[in-house]
Amino acid sequence: MTLYVLRHGQTPWNKLKKLQGRMDIPLNENGLELAAKTGEAMLEVPIDLVISSPLKRARQTAELITVGRNIPMIIDERIEEISFGDYEGESVLDGESEVIPADFLHKFYNKPLKCNRPPHGESFQDVIERTKDFYKSLIENPEYKDKNILISSHGAASRCFLCNFYTDKEDVWRGQIPPNCSVTIVDVNDDGQGRVRVLDKQFAKLDDKK
């Protein structure tokens, strides 16, 4: 089995540096364009199945990447973005939010497993557990053996999913938040053991910085 773990394209809230979480924000013009270009660049990449988060930005990205290829898509809530609860819609820029505690953002980016669960939201460990359950369902399904699966997810959720393939669970971010429309390629053997072959591959970029 080969997994292509995708982060969705840019949204208006990405550009404004707002926490999106479960807010169903669609792609902006840049996001639509980059997803389409990524799809063109991935035309020769074999994909048998798409599994997407139910959030619009993930579904739009997957649809644009596989347009015209008649690839079935399954929606799975277990790869939905981390819920920021009461912090959703708040800015992460210094001093712009009166709601988010300063230490929350520091831990979120630097020590995510030490980051407190937002009110009515999720912790990183919560997301690690649900994406672990998602991965278990993949490797236990005989129909998925030897399949090439595109997983359309989100920044934090996709990184939590990758914890299935690293011994060090503390380093959730692996050096950075994955760029929009970047793809991490994971090879899974017959025993269900996965290995990250390529981290954050960008098949395409926009011509101009917008």
Automatic annotation (TrEMBL):
Cellular component terms per the entry's GO annotation: cytoplasm
Active-site residues (renumbered): H8, E81
Alphabetical UniProt keywords: Glycolysis, Isomerase
GO MF entry, a single one: phosphatase activity
Binding site for substrate: R7, H8, G9, Q10, T11, P12, W13, N14, R57
Site residues (Transition state stabilizer), renumbered to this chain: H154
Protein name: Probable phosphoglycerate mutase
